[in-house]
Design goal:
By secondary structure, the chain is of the alpha/beta class. It is built from eleven helices and nine strands. A nine-stranded mixed β-sheet has the order 1-2-4-3-5-6-7-8-9, with helices on both faces.
Length: 297
C-alpha cells in the first residue's frame, strides 16, 4: 500500500491536486487502531468509573480514578488509548492523584474513524468544563501537543480554554505543519499538494492549521511546564524538544536517551521525575538554566 501511495503522489498527484490533497488530508487524520498493550491497562479499566460526553465527533469515552489528591488529566497519543498509559496512571494513583483519562475521538472506545485537532480540543475542553482548574494536564506525543494547545486563548469557538497549574508533555511534536510534512515526506507528496492539504485542513478545523505550535503554547502558558523527550525518539525527532526549549527556556526540560518514543512512558526514573514535578508547590515562573537536565538511565 505504501509503495502504491508513493507512486501516486510522486507521479499522478500533480494532475489531480484537489483529489490528492483530500487523500493526504484523509490519511493524515486516520489513526491506526491498537488494542490494549498491557495487563496494567486492562486492570485499570476495570477499576475506573466510566463516563462519556457527546462531542462534535460523537461519543467520547473517559475514565476516572477518584483519589484523595488533586485532579489531573492524562491524554494519550495518536493511534493509542487511555488504557495503554496504565503504568503511568498507576504511578499517579499511588502518589495520591485523582486521575481522569479519555479515549480521544476515533481512539479506543470513542466514536469515529478519523479525527483532527478541532475534534480533540473540543472534546478535551468539554471534559474540562466541570473542572475549574486541573492541578496538571499530562500528555504523551500528540496528547502532549493537544494538552498545550487546549490552553490557547484564541480559539473561543472550540470552547473555554483549559485551565491548569501545570503541564507535563512527554515526547510532544512542536508544529502541526511539521507533522504533516513528516507524513507527506514518507509518501513522497510534492510541495504543492502539501500546501493545498494544509489549506484544506484549516477549513476542517476552522482555524489556521499552521498556527498550532507547542513551543508557542508552552511559552505562553501561565503555569509551570515540564517537557520530557528522548534523544533516540524515532517517531518525534529530538529537534522538536529543542525548539520548545528555545521558545520557553524558563520551563523545566528533561532529556533521556535509549528509551525511544514509547518506553519513555514506562521508565521508573521518568515517572519519578513527573511525580516530583507534580508534587512541587505551584510557583511563579522564574528563570531556569538554559540546558535541559539529563536523566541518567
Amino acid at each position: 500500500m505504501i509503495r502504491l501511495l508513493r507512486f501516486y503522489f510522486a507521479g499522478l498527484a500533480r494532475f489531480m491536486p484537489g483529489t490528492s490533497a483530500g487523500l493526504l488530508a484523509r490519511l493524515f487524520t486516520t489513526p491506526g487502531r491498537h488494542g490494549l498493550q498491557s495487563t496494567a491497562g486492562k486492570r485499570l479499566l476495570e477499576s475506573a468509573e466510566r463516563g462519556s460526553i457527546n462531542s462534535i465527533s460523537g461519543n467520547v469515552t473517559f475514565y476516572r480514578w477518584r483519589n484523595r489528591g488533586p485532579r489531573v488529566l492524562v491524554l494519550h497519543g495518536w493511534s493509542d488509548q487511555a488504557a495503554n498509559l496504565g503504568e503511568l496512571i498507576d504511578v499517579l494513583l499511588a502518589a495520591g492523584y485523582d486521575v481522569t483519562a479519555p479515549d480521544l475521538p476515533a481512539h479506543g472506545d470513542s466514536a469515529g474513524n478519523t479525527a483532527h485537532m478541532k475534534q480533540w480540543l473540543v472534546a478535551i475542553r468539554m471534559l474540562s468544563a466541570g473542572v475549574p482548574k486541573w492541578h496538571a494536564v499530562l500528555g504523551h506525543s500528540l496528547g502532549g501537543f493537544a494538552a498545550a494547545a487546549s490552553t490557547r486563548e484564541d480559539l473561543p469557538h472550540y470552547g473555554t480554554p483549559v485551565k491548569a497549574g501545570k503541564l507535563v508533555l512527554i515526547a510532544p511534536p512542536d508544529r502541526s505543519s511539521t507533522m504533516l510534512r513528516m507524513v507527506a515526506g514518507h509518501l513522497q507528496a510534492p510541495e504543492r499538494i502539501i500546501e493545498r492539504t494544509a489549506s484544506l485542513l484549516s477549513e476542517w478545523i476552522d482555524a489556521d492549521f499552521n498556527s498550532f505550535s507547542t513551543a508557542e503554547n508552552v511559552a505562553n502558558f501561565d503555569g509551570k511546564a515540564l517537557v520530557i523527550h528522548d534523544r533516540d525518539d524515532n517517531r518525534v525527532p529530538f529537534a522538536h524538544f529543542e525548539a520548545i526549549r528555545e521558545a520557553a527556556p524558563e520551563q523545566d526540560f528533561i532529556a533521556t536517551a535509549s528509551l525511544g518514543h514509547r518506553r519513555i512512558l514506562d521508565n521508573a526514573r521518568v515517572q519519578a521525575s513527573i511525580v516530583e514535578f507534580l508534587d512541587e508547590a505551584i510557583q511563579v515562573r522564574g528563570a531556569r538554566p538554559d540546558a535541559a537536565r539529563q536523566l541518567a538511565m
